[in-house]
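Protein Entry — a single chain follows
Fields — amino acid sequence, C-alpha cells
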Amino acid sequence: MVAKLRIRKSKRYDDEIIYSARFLYLKKYTPKEIAKELGLNSARPIYYWAEKYNWRNLISEGGIEEMIALRILTLTDRENKTDQEIKELEALIDKDIQYKKQRASQQAKTQSLTQADNGLIIDETAPTEKKRSKKSKIKNDISHITPEMVQPFIDSLFEYQIICRNNKHQDVRNILKSRQIGATYYFAFEALEDAIFSGDNQIFLSASKRQSEIFKNYIVKMAKAYFNVELKGNPIILSNGAELHFLATNANTAQGNSGHVYGDEYAWIRDFKRFNDVASAMATHKKWRETYFSTPSSKFHESYGFWSGETWKDADPKRKEIVFPHFNEYRDGGRLCPDGQWRYVITIEDALKGGAGVLFDIDKLKLRYSKHTFNQLYMCVWVDDANSIFNVQQLLKCAINAEKWKDFDRNSARPFGHREVWAGYDPAHSSDSASFVIIGVPVLPNEKWRVLERHQWQGLSYKWQAEQIRKINEKYNITYLGIDTTGVGYGVYETIREFMRRQATPINYSPDVKTSMVLKVHDLVEHNKIEWSNEEKDILASFLMIKQTTTRSGTATTFVADRTVKTQHADVFWAICNAINHKPITDKPRKRRGWRI
C-alpha cells in the first residue's frame, strides 16, 4: 500500500512541485528528466525528496526488467527518434539481454550445486566455447558455436517460452499474447539458433521498419552476449549462408525472399490480408514454417478471422460446423486446430504462473490501466466494437507510417515550422487521463488533417499541465485551442487563458455540440481525410469506443464513450474532437496562414 506523501514546507518548492516530481519518479523518469520536465535548475531536490520521503521503497525490487521492457516499448513507439534515443534503445536492449543472461547463469549455478549435493560429479573443466583465432576475418563467423553454448539461454526460459520452443515444428504457430512477456526476445533467439544450426533463412515482418529493427537489435546483442560474435549487415548473412531479413509489412519489400517467417503484432497491421498472403507466399515450400504473434485488436479487424478460424471456415461451406478449441484450451499449453494452425494464448496471468513473476507487478498494472485496456493488452481479449459508429477498416487507413511526413520533425525547435496548427484539450474526469493533441491544418490540395502530437497526463495538477501546454505553445503556431469546460475543465481553461487568451476557446458540452463535433470527425475518417501515426494504437481504440445513444430524456440522440474506470481511454478521441471543432461543416480551401519563406 502506497504510503501517504508527507510534504516538506518550503518557500522555494510548493507541494504541487513535490507531488509532480513524485509522480514522475514512480513512472521511471530519471531525476535529471524530472528536473527538466518541471523546470528545476538542478536534479538535487529530486534526490533529496526521494531519500526523505522513501520514494525508492515504492518501486518494487523485482521491477528492473519490467522497467527496461517499458522503456524499450516507449522508445520503440516514438516517432523520429534522436540519435541519443536510438543509442539509449540499443543500450537498453543490451542491458535487457544481460539481465536475462545473468538470470540464466544463476539458474545454471543453482542447478549445478543441486547436482553436487546429490552426489553428481561436475566437470568444471568442460569447454563451453571453442576458441577462435583472433586473426579470423570471416564475416559473421558462427562456425565455432555448439549446441552446448545455447543451453544457458534455454535454461533461462519461462514455461510459456518452453511451450513455444517445443512446438517449433508446427507448420503455423498463431500466438495471442500479453504485452511485455518477452515474445520478441524469445523468437529472435529461436530464429538465430535455427539459422546457425540449420542454415535456413529467417524473415521478420513487422508493422513498421522500425519495429522489425528491434528483432535485429536483439539478435546482434544476443550473438555478442552468448557467442561473442559481432553480426553485421542488413540483411545479416551468416558464414554458413543463412540470411536474416528484417522487413516492414510493405509487400513490395518482401518479393523474392523465402524462409521461416515471423510476423509481429499482426492484429495491428492495416492491410492484414495482403500481409498474410505475402508472408505465406514466402513460406510456400514445405520446409518453411510460419509464426505469428500479437496482442489482440478489434473483432472487426481482418486478423480476427485468421485467429478465430472463421476465415478458414468461410472458404468452404463444408467447414461451417467444424468446432475449434475453446479459449481456455488455448491457454492450457496450446492446441493444434482443424485448419492446421497451432494456437496458443499467453495472458499475463499465464506468464506469472509460468515463472515470470520477476517481470511484473500485476496489481500496479491494474491500477495503471482501465479494466477495458488491461483486458485487451494483458488478458488477450479482442475488442468488440459492433456498436461503434466508426468502422475499424476505415480507421486503419488513417493509421499511417508518420515517417512520410517530411515537413514535420518532432525533435526540432519548431516541429512544424510556422504552419498553422489547432490544439484540443480534454480534462481528466475522475480516474481517467487528461489528453492534449496538436492537429496539423491542411492548406494544400488533397492534404489531410494530421495528429502531429498527443500527450496524456494522469494524476498531475492543473498548474503542471498548463505549464506543459505553455511549453508546447512555444514550439507551434497554435491559432486555436478547444477546451472542454464542462465541470472540472473550467479551472484548466482559466489557467491557460493567462498565456493563450486569443487561442483558448471554451467548449460547453451539450448533445448538439457533441453531435456536431463527432460528425465532423466521422466525416474526416469516412473520407480518409485525417491521419495519425500507426504507433499510436490507442487512438484507434478510443475511436471504436464512441457509440450513439439517446439523452436521458429520450428526446434527442447524442454520442458517448462510457467514461468509467472500465473505459477511460476515449479521452484522446474527445481531445481530437475539441481541436476539430474549429473546422467548418463544409470544406473550403484554406488560406496559407503563418507561413514564412
Q: What stands out?
A: The two ends are 57 Å apart (CA to CA). Residues 392-580 form a domain with the Nucleotidyltransferase; domain 5 fold (CATH 3.30.420.240). Confidence is low (pLDDT under 50) at residues 1-10, 113-131, 562-568, 592-597. Residues 181 and 351 are 7 Å apart (CA to CA).
